[in-house]
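input
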Amino acid sequence: MITNCNTYLRDMPVGTRACVVGYEKAYLGYKGRLLSMGLTPGTEFTIIRHAPFNLIEIEVQGFRLRLRKQEADALCVEEVDDD
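output
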């Protein structure tokens, strides 16, 4: 799904659980790379830390992944409730 995002990964605090809902139109060049890393729509992940040099570390499907700011901005995400 390609959409305009209103929630960005970089704006979410550490410890937040979120889900991929689509990809930002402006960053479609990163879509293939994100898909190959397992970040498909419906995939849940947890934000582990905001690392130096504009990196965001997430835990997805049992492994840790660091995304560059541009890659992270390509993801449209929603926060997942723990209920």
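quick obs: The mean pLDDT is 88.
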